[in-house]
Amino acid sequence: MYRATQVKLVNTNLVWETKETVNIGFDASFLNSRLTFSAEYYHSKTKDVLTEMPIAISTGNQEGAPKANAASLRNRGFELSFGVERSSFRFQIWCIVEYYNFE
């Protein structure tokens, strides 16, 4: 006689993760491209992130936590860059400033 039991709980309500992204940038150069400037702002939000939901072993789940769409992420920040180039001396200076926030 053969018997079968389910040892891992399955979530039938799983959906695909969704992501919304905004990225706005500006580039400029002056004095025949000797001075350059760049600015960028970005913002992204991910919904329905797939995570494991811990549950008690007493529920009969022997193979680990079932998956669920139970999290969301947000990432945003900006980046600035300045450049100076002097071709006659082969001299370059670059400065990059970044800030980001991950939630």
Describe the structure.
It is a single chain. By secondary structure, the protein is an all-beta fold. Helices cover 0% and strands 61% of the residues. It has strands spanning 18-30, 35-52, 67-86, 91-102. It has a 4-stranded antiparallel beta sheet, with no helix packed on it. A hairpin with a 4-residue loop joins strand 1 (18-30) and strand 2. The protein is rod-shaped and about 90 Å long.
**Strands, total number:** 4
Helix content: under 10%
Largest sheet: 4 strands, antiparallel
Q: So what's the overall shape?
A: rod-shaped
Strand percent estimate: over 45%
Please state the structural category.
Answer: mainly beta
What is the averaged pLDDT score? Answer: 80
Instruction: Give the termini distance in whole angstroms.
Output: 53 Å
Helical stretch tally: 0
Q: Which segments are poorly predicted (pLDDT under 50) over 5 or more consecutive residues?
A: none
Please write the string of helix (H) and strand (E) elements: EEEE
* Major sheet: arrangement of strands: 1-2-3-4
Q: From the alpha-carbon coordinates, what is the Rg to the nearest angstrom?
A: 25 Å
